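Reading a protein record of the kind used here takes only a little practice. Each token is a code from a learned vocabulary of local backbone shapes. With that in mind, consider the following protein and its fold in token form:
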Amino acid sequence: MEDPKDYGVIWDMDGTLVDTAELHFEAWTAATKESNLSFSRADFNATFGQRNPEVLRHVYGDRLSDKELAELAREKEEQYRAACRRHGVEPLPGARTILASLHQASFKQAIGSSAPRANLDLILQLTKLASHFDALVSMEDTQRGKPDPQVFLIAAERLNVSPVRCVVVEDAVAGVQAAKAGGMKCIAVDFVGHHGEAALRKAGADLVVKSLEKVTVDSIRRLFS
């Protein structure tokens, strides 16, 4: 491959760099209970990684007004951020090392997430990972959620890198599909295990690893060779 400065690595957040799934479930449970609604584990598993608008429409259909949906989403995210502060958040194994190695090798790096910007800012603050990233793309920047590639295409644009010179690191089938729909390489991480290696490969991942400890600068270079 050519100069790493001309290449980008775009990271999903939840399930890839950190595992805050249970904090999200705790927040959804608390927020919906306050509104006399239910949010089951099956609802959570079916929608994890999606943007709040898609989550709420999937679970509640047309039962709630737009105003009620917005208020429920706001309450959920406040509950989530409070839980993060209360419990703390640590990067998943290997995350800190590969982020630093890519930064040192001059790869451009971005976050491409379905989460609200306030969540990303808090997670990066708690984990002290912010200095590795050149761009952040959050829920507020998109109109369409994964598997639509919009979030990753915006990230590539903000990095000023062609999509064909980007690799996305994801843990979810929809994220892998979004990366491939955007014309990008994709590394899928199966550490959290929401989807499993077979499903991630079927979705089109170029490389599936059990942990970010298995990802190196050289393995990313090889994807473009």
Observations:
- The mean pLDDT is 95.
